[in-house]
TrEMBL record:
It comes from Cryobacterium zhongshanensis. One of its GO terms (biological process) is potassium ion transport. PROSITE patterns: RCK_C, RCK_N. This is TrkA family potassium uptake protein. One of its GO terms (molecular function) is monoatomic cation transmembrane transporter activity. Residues 136-218 form the RCK C-terminal domain. Residues 4-120 form the RCK N-terminal domain. It comes from the Bacteria. Signal peptide: none annotated. It holds the Pfam family TrkA_C.
Amino acid sequence: MTREDAVVVIGLGRFGSSLALELMKSGTEVLGIDGDADIVQAHNGLLTHVVRADSTKEETLRQLGVADFSSAVVAIGGDIQANILTASLLIKLGIGNIWAKAVSEPHGAILDQLGVSHVIYPEKDMGKRVAHLVRGVMQDYLEIGENFAMVKMAPPQETVGIPLAKTRVRPVHGVTVTAFLRDGAGWNYTTLETVLEADDVILVAGETERVEAFSRLR
Ligand code: ADP
């Protein structure tokens, strides 16, 4: 295991487990740590290494060689005290990239103050994302940074049947149709000459409010 390129995932609950498995799928080695014997057992063979340990103990983390890793994720959710203690120990060990899951704004603020480089709010972010989908007009929604989003949706009437250059989507709506999905042809990037069809699916990028307004067009 090359520790500089590998990731330590602490807490293999629903979030930590799916994160760790996804890392493995994309070819990243993972050291999983969890205090629960059954959970450790369930991940045996699925991660590069899995150990049963209490991540709030500095000596334990040192013995496991956690200090040699450059990236770690604190995926403990339910036990805020364990989450904060673990994050502070990872900082003490000098790990450069730390992602820690926060379950509330005040919890996230504490992690920020500790100096955690990436505080993540999986539940809140997923809630926001699903809210956009529940409204029924978007097929997928991804917020990228503060005020930018990408949306998968059906093309509004005014963008169908004429070359994109003539639709004036960008000057009028302030968004860009970046790609389109057509039956049998898969995804393709758009050009100014692309003529969308009513059955296409499009991928639109732009400021959050602009893409939301665009997705409401019929
Ligand atoms: P999720 O909501 O993603 O399922 P949970 O908070 O329920 O997250 O799960 C977190 C995991 O972290 C659990 O499997 C639990 O055993 C583990 N965990 C909690 N505290 C510690 C600790 N101090 N050391 C190691 N693992 C811990």
